[in-house]
Write a structure and sequence with these properties.
Layout (H helix, E strand, L loop, with lengths): L2 E4 L2 E4 L3 E2 L5 H14 L3 E3 L7 H10 L8 E6 L6 H15 L4 E6 L8 H13 L3 E7 L3 H10 L2 E7 L7 H9 L3 E5 L11 H10 L3 H10 L4 E3 L6 H8 L8 H8 L22
Parallel strand pairs: 3-4, 4-5, 5-6, 6-7, 7-8, 8-9, 9-10
Antiparallel strand pairs: 1-2
Helix pairs in contact: 1-2, 1-9, 2-3, 3-4, 7-8
Bound molecules: NADP nicotinamide-adenine-dinucleotide phosphate.
Length: 274
């Protein structure tokens, strides 16, 4: 398995996303992902599935210390007291004494970043989170965060239709992991003609081509979500072929500043196509 090595940690570059997986589907899905070899699970307090993720990890034969587990503090729980209670609740639901990565889910300009990240850093010092990071931060906000605390990861939307060069370069320069969320553009990559051509040449699917393109990039991890075993298996089966430089250039060329996740509370994005 390709890893992203930052801050002394070795993180499996291919993870399993769990947004919109709920109840038994989530429990069975995470257990199945672990059976298939996934060792990096991405959840969040707001997903409402931490209890099921925790049950799946407990039921699995894979040891807790062999799994990279990420959860996120919702942006509306940004005061120091809220960060602490949110994380304690997450750990209880996840049935674990620590998460490997605790992310602040979205920026919140109503609470000083110093307060939020300061509280997260205290949790890190107490061992409740091995590492801390942020999600949906712009380059400006990320630079501010780096001044405040040892953020080790940034999670943002990233797929062939949305380039993230500036943020990835910042991560590379700061010993940070960049995690691509919605790496399949929520299914939109499936029908792209350029990707289909490349996929046909390698005897793979467009989804497999995109995931390989992502995890081949230094510092980049990806957390595709899949509801079925067939999709989970396919998404993990991406290491038996290699993309050529021409393939990579063609995929890079698909960027068109297309942002799929853009709620009303999102920050003002900077230079989306850079
Ligand atoms: N930090 C944040 O704010 C944030 C925001 C969004 C997402 N995320 C994280 O990123 C994860 C992934 O993002 P996402 O769920 O938005 O979208 P995604 O992973 O880009 O796409 C998921 C879609 O692709 C389909 N799919 C997956 N594997 C496939 C395959 N092999 N063949 C065909 N279709 C396939 C899935 O269908 P099936 O479900 O039917 O398999 C689903 O419709 C989330 O689960 C979450 O953990 C984080």
């Amino acid at each position: 398995m390709k890893t992203v090595d930052v801050g002394g940690a070795r993180i499996p570059a291919l993870g399993f996303g769990t947004w919109q997986l709920e109840g038994d589907d989530c429990r069975a899905g995470v257990e199945n992902a672990l059976d298939l070899g996934y060792r990096h699970i991405d959840t969040a307090q707001i997903y409402g599935n931490e209890a099921e993720v925790g049950e799946a990890i407990q039921a699995s034969e894979v040891a807790r210390e062999d799994i990279w587990l990420t959860t996120k503090v919702w942006y509306e729980r940004a005061t120091a007291a809220q960060v602490k209670s949110s994380t304690e609740e997450s750990l209880r639901k996840l049935r674990t004494g620590y998460v490997d990565l605790l992310l602040f889910h979205w920026p919140n300009d109503r609470v000083e970043l110093k307060e939020t990240l300061g509280a997260m850093n205290e949790l890190r010092e107490q061992g409740l989170a091995k590492h801390i990071g942020v999600s949906n931060f712009t380059p400006t906000l990320l630079k501010q965060a780096l001044e405040i605390a040892p953020v080790r990861a940034l999670q943002c939307e990233y797929h062939p239709f949305l380039a993230q060069k500036e943020l990835i370069a910042l991560c590379a320069a700061s010993d940070m992991m960049f995690t691509a969320y919605s790496p399949l553009a929520r299914g939109e990559v499936l029908e792209d003609p350029t990707l289909r051509l490349i996929a046909e040449r390698h005897g793979k699917s467009t989804v497999q081509v995109v995931l390989r393109w992502l995890v081949d990039q230094p510092h980049v991890a990806a957390v595709p979500k899949a509801s079925s075993e067939a999709h989970r298996r396919a998404n993990f089966d991406i290491f038996d072929f290699s993309l050529t430089d021409a393939d990579v250039a063609a995929i890079d060329g698909l960027a068109r500043g297309q942002r799929i996740i853009d709620p009303g509370f999102a920050p003002k994005w900077e230079n989306a196509s850079a």
